[in-house]
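Section handout 9: paired folding examples.
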Amino acid sequence: MSNYTILLSKKAEKQLDKLPKNIAISIIEGISLLETDSRPNGCKKLKGRDGFRIRVGDYRIIYEIYDDELIIDVITLGHRKDIYQ
């Protein structure tokens, strides 16, 4: 299986910068795992919008997969109470 390239949107970068350091580190680890497995156990296809989501504790990472180009585009991330609004 080929490795994917991870791209973070400007919005995702800003949200990551606002998080406490310990939470940001665990989210970065979760994102880096997507390089080798774009659809890990526990990922879900979103309804009502394009993309997938994975859980990292109480936080969610929403991303789109472009299989033909081997790119994962992280659209947004945040706490589960805020992320779907």
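Moving on to protein 2 of 2.
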Amino acid sequence: MGSHGDAEAFGVSPRHRTDRDDRDCIPVHVVWELTLACNLKCGHCGSRAGRRRPSELTTEEALAVVDSMAALGTRELTVIGGEAYLRRDWTEIIARATGHGIYVGLQTGGRALTPARLQAGIDAGLKQIGVSVDGLEALHDRLRGVNGSWRAAIDVLHRARAGGVRTSVNTNIGPETIAQLPALLDVLAKAGISNWLAMITVAMGNAVDHPEWLLQPYQMDDVMRQLAALHEPARAAGILLKPGNNVGYFGPYEHLWADDRDADSDEFAGCSAGHTLIGLEADGTVKGCPSLATQDFAGGNIRDGSLEAVWRRAAGSGALRPSPDLWGHCGSCYYAQACGAGCTWTAHGVLGRPGNNPYCHHRVLKLRAEGRRERIVKLQDAGPASFSVGRFALIEETLDGSPLPASEPAAAVPLRRDRPLVLDLCRGCQQYVHQGTLQCPFCGGDVPALREAHAGSRAELRRTMDDLRQRLGIGETAR
């Protein structure tokens, strides 16, 4: 759940990673499941939320965790569930974090976030509320398992904004959601949200029980085209629309997600789990990312020592940071060392191990150019526990679905975290290329010449706009 972009629209988020954060493994962002209790019945819930964990942290333990976050340098805390507000001391936890100067947000389905509960959160220091909205009313209510949940979610957005809280929306994208995104944008614009995060539904927990709700890998092109088409309309409505960390990577639209800054290189930088991100479960289990499978990725428990102790031990050993060997298509990919196979959660959920992620736009386009595509087929259910995964087969076939002969898997390639790959943007095809590349491997263009021409055209545009603004008396164009 790395850089979700739901804190500060059109600006620098508190979780924005600096060179020091990366170098010193500062847990800039913590996502904390305060309780697993939930009043929705989401058919795609990876944690199978509903009932509280039998050994939730006490209030005293929870407040000590907040103090540890502050000591470690955490700048942003997102409280989740279940539904975080179903825990009685949720506002005490928010107030403690706010007292340390930590920016606190809430992620919710919104079903029973009453005016009194909302105000209590605001009074405690809640700065941001993200509401899950997975499509228009009928689809959302079906996915969330409760009639009226869509209307409740939209109502919370309006009430929170009226209360002075920054509002955002998270949308899980499945096969039925793609076509509804333009109409959903209109709804969210009227609600006055600042940020909209698009994620794909991951094969975990309840979602494994509904494989028809999972995208096929080859549908990633439809997703990316739709998100790219909505980027400017969303921006015009004051909404920063961004794909989550399990949507991407490195296709021709990647440059659009550069935090709305005129930056030549602000691309996806790999999984941040256990490096600048901590996930906490309600019983004190520590993971590098809140979405990862507990059985395979838990790195300790705060009851075995403080959060500080668990983190410092893990940061030194890398125990909380998935460090997969890259295999399959990801092992030989042009972007392998920059991307690291994208979202660990997504890859592990589908294939049972990280390091090979079929939900990649660059990969989909490359395979299509070769007349191929990939499809997943469910082989085994997920277990009853939270964050459990099933088993899927990844099938490669022709574009019309005809089978292809199986090929020998390529040897695994280690992910080199000590030598990050730096990328530039080719201004001919808008694809990222290795820094220092002279001829673009995708469009054949002269990368330095295209960059110089782009810079010249941008400078000329700025001069024209500044002249126009001066004539109109409205000041200079922001640099």
